[in-house]
TrEMBL record:
It comes from Candidatus Flavonifractor merdipullorum. SUPFAM superfamilies: Homeodomain-like. One of its GO terms (molecular function) is DNA binding. Keywords: DNA-binding. InterPro entries: Homeodomain-like_sf (IPR009057), HTH-type_Tx_Regulator (IPR050624), HTH_TetR (IPR001647), TetR_C_Firmicutes (IPR039532). PANTHER family: ACREF/ENVCD OPERON REPRESSOR-RELATED, ACREF_ENVCD OPERON REPRESSOR-RELATED. Residues 25-44 bind DNA. The keyword rRNA-binding does not apply. The keyword Plastid does not apply. This is TetR/AcrR family transcriptional regulator. Residues 2-62 form the HTH tetR-type domain. PROSITE patterns: HTH_TETR_2 (PS50977). Gene3D superfamilies: Tetracycline Repressor, domain 2.
Length: 183
């Protein structure tokens, strides 16, 4: 099942780089993945089911990555978690490129942004002593959207920098922005 899923996800990502998801057929997907259509339907109802399960799997894996960090670790700095986030994106390059593609359905971008937002609002409030609610959450919305857009741009540019370089850039942008908000 894992090999089949990987082949289908890879083929789906390749097709999504060329066309909108609604224009992808099971026939062309299975042909590209070298999978029997019956095998596809044994695991998925349709293209959208494959896409949904792919998104859910990626979000669950991303959540696990975030869960690995305690508040105490985050208080020492964001660079380690940011580095892991960029390594995660590169490890899942094909799927991230397809799901974060500027022409793709923005649902995954929104889901990822919401997850980061929910996770960060409490942790960053403690780290930076900022009451985001009092400020209307504009700053946090900006930081989260910027962080996800940074990942999107990096994937679109073919991972032209190392995960460490991207983590350093994101860390600097986040810290400088949040520190400025305290003033």
């Amino acid at each position: 099942m894992r090999k089949t899923r990987t082949q289908l996800q890879k083929a789906m990502a390749e097709l999504m780089a060329q066309k909108n998801v609604q224009d992808i057929t099971v026939q062309e997907l299975t042909r590209l993945a070298d999978i029997n259509r019956g095998t596809f339907y044994r695991h998925y109802r349709d293209i959208y089911d494959l896409l949904e399960q792919t998104e859910q799997g990626l979000i669950a894996e991303f959540n696990t990555l975030l869960d690995a960090y305690t508040n105490e670790e985050l208080q020492r700095g964001l660079r380690p978690i940011l580095s892991d986030v960029f390594y995660f994106a590169r490890k899942n390059a094909a799927v991230c490129e397809a799901l974060l593609n500027i022409h793709a359905d923005q649902r995954f971008f929104q889901r990822l942004s919401s997850l980061i937002y929910e996770r960060c609002v409490g942790e960053w409030r403690g780290l930076y002593a900022i009451d985001f609610m009092e400020r209307g959450n504009y700053e946090l919305e900006f930081v989260v959207a910027g962080a996800v857009s940074l990942i999107r741009t990096w994937t679109a540019r073919g991972f032209d920098r190392s995960p460490e370089e991207m983590a350093e850039l994101a860390d600097r942008l986040i810290r400088n922005g949040l520190i400025e908000m305290k003033a």
